[in-house]
Amino acid sequence: MIEVRFHGRGGQGAVVASELLAHAAFRDGKFPQSFPFFGVERRGAPVTAYARIDDRPVDVRTSVTAPDIVVVLDAGLLRRVPVTAGLRAGGLLLVNSPRRPEELAGLGPFRIAAVDAARIALRHGLGSVTLPIVNTAVLGAFARVSGVVSLDAVRAAIESFSPARQVENAAAASDGYTDVVTAEVGPIPELGPASPRTVPLVLPEDPVASRSSETLPTADWRSLTPVIDLGRCTRCNFCWKFCPDNAIEFDAAGWPVLRGEFCKGCGICAAECPPRAIAMRAEA
Ligand code: SF4
Ligand code: SF4
After folding, report:
1. Higher pLDDT residue, 61 or 203?
2. Any ligand 1 atom below 6 A from CB of 243
3. pLDDT of 106-151, one tens digit each?
4. Residue of 26, 57, 184, 198 with fewest CB within 10 Å of its CB?
5. How much distance in Å is there from the Cα of 80 to the middle of ligand 1?
6. Which domain holds residue 19?
7. Are 126 and 62 part of one and the same domain?
8. How many domains does the chain have?
9. Is 265 in the pocket of ligand 1 (CB under 6 A)?
């Protein structure tokens, strides 16, 4: 039996990816199973989904804690979520990232594959720059590097069961199959601890009261980071004014500085900046 764990963010299609994988495996004559982990349901929040594939009916119903394959739909999660937990040495780690897989070697003694699924998704008009829908490009890559399902079955599953834009999603899967790159890496130190929270969570006295964004670091939600070009910046402070999470501050000279632990990557600052001095860049 092959056990697969998907890590993504709400809105990227991790749950749909696990379902499409199960449909594809069924088309290939295998016995699949897929189900999500229900956590926080909101766009941008970390999401987990599971799949099992076997030549015989799958009886086990627990979540996947010792996967053979881990699929990461958002490379920004690598620093914040222990995605490799339980992944066996020599297992497959497939990451949506523009980086070479060798650059991800520090994640552990795994077979590491990388595919720039965000670029593929945007090429096919799937999602937006702030939230590309990368699941089908990643599934195509999965077919190639895992050998667990065929590309034909993945494409057929997408054409039958993808919730929208079946033609574009099937094309994205084919591109993911073509573009994915794999590296073999040796034993390496484990992933370090998650980024420290610089501000402790403080519960309000009134449990129904909403909390200030000052007590809610939202960096975990982020898939894109604002990058400020100070050469174009006029120090107008619009980005500070419009940021819903108070994630912009100013240095002594009045230049804007990002408070990364509070930035959720919504892109409002980039949209509001008059001289277009802010670009939203994918987290590598
Ligand atoms: S992307 Fe910009 S507006 Fe949105 S939270 Fe981050 S700094 Fe604030
Ligand atoms: S909105 Fe743009 S120009 Fe104004 S301070 Fe922010 S980055 Fe600079």
Report:
1. 61
2. yes
3. 888 889 999 999 999 999 999 888 788 999 999 999 999 999 999 9
4. 57
5. 18
6. 2-184
7. yes
8. 2
9. yes
C-alpha 90/C-alpha 111 separation (Å) is: 6
Across the chain, what does the average pLDDT equal? 85
Q: What is the CATH number of the domain that holds 244?
A: 3.30.70.20
Position 29 scores a pLDDT of 96
Do 122 and 230 lie in a common domain? no
What pLDDT, in 10s, does the model give residues 267-279? 999 999 999 999 9
Residue 274: how many other CB atoms lie within 10 Å: 11
Distance from Cα 247 to the centre of ligand 2, integer Å: 13
Ligand 2 centroid–CA 137 distance in Å is 35
Query: Could you say which ligand is closest to the alpha carbon of residue 237?
Result: 2
Which mutation among 233, 269, 272 tests ligand 1's pocket best, with the greatest number of atoms within 8 A of CB? 269
Closest to 25 (Cα-Cα) out of 138, 159, 153: 153
The tokens describing 51, both together, are: 């799949």
Atom 3 (ligand 1): residue with closest C-alpha?
243
Residue whose CB lies within 8 A of the most ligand 2 atoms, among 236, 249, 250, for a mutation test = 236
Distance of CA 270 to the CA centre of its chain: 21
Most confident by average pLDDT, 3-17, 76-90, 132-146: 132-146
CA 280 – CA 271 distance, rounded (Å): 10
